[in-house]
């Protein structure tokens, strides 16, 4: 099955990745029922707590990376300006 984007180009490989976002209605209920049967009612809160902590750590890492990039972008012009002043002497 080929999936084309609106402009007619081939989509990236990420488009072909199937996730829970494609599940709707009855399919989602079946998946939830299977999860309930596999893990049981007592394990699901622990599982979700672990997922929540993982998402929180991911968000912290993304924020830290963004701050690092912003800091290096702000400090880079100052470094290059001081180098040009030294070169002109």
Tell me briefly what this model is:
With 89 residues, the protein is mostly helical.
Could you characterize what this model shows?
Its main location: membrane. This is Sec-independent protein translocase protein TatA. There is one protein chain. The chain is about 70% helix and about 0% strand. The chain starts with about 25 loop residues before the first helix and ends with a helix. With about 90 residues, it is mainly α. It has one domain. It contains 1 helix and no strands. The protein has one helix at about 25-89. The radius of gyration is 24 Å and the shape is elongated.
Report how far the terminal alpha carbons are from each other: 65 Å
Secondary structure: number of strands? 0
Q: Structural class, from secondary structure content? A: mainly alpha
* Overall pLDDT metric: 74
Global shape? elongated
| Residue share in helix | over 70%
Number of helices: 1
Low-confidence stretches: none
The SSE order reads H
Please report which band the strand proportion falls in: under 5%, 5-15%, 15-25%, 25-35%, 35-45% or over 45%. Answer: under 5%
Largest sheet, strands/sense/barrel: none
Count structural domains.
Answer: 1
Report Rg: 24 Å
């Amino acid at each position: 099955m080929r999936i084309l984007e609106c402009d007619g180009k081939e989509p990236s490989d990420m488009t072909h990745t199937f996730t829970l976002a494609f599940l709707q209605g009855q399919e989602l209920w079946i998946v939830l029922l299977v999860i309930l049967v596999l893990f049981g009612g007592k394990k699901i809160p622990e599982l979700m707590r672990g997922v929540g902590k993982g998402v929180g750590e991911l968000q912290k890492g993304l924020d830290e990376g963004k701050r690092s990039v912003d800091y290096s972008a702000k400090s880079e012009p100052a470094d290059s300006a001081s180098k040009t002043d030294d070169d002109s002497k």
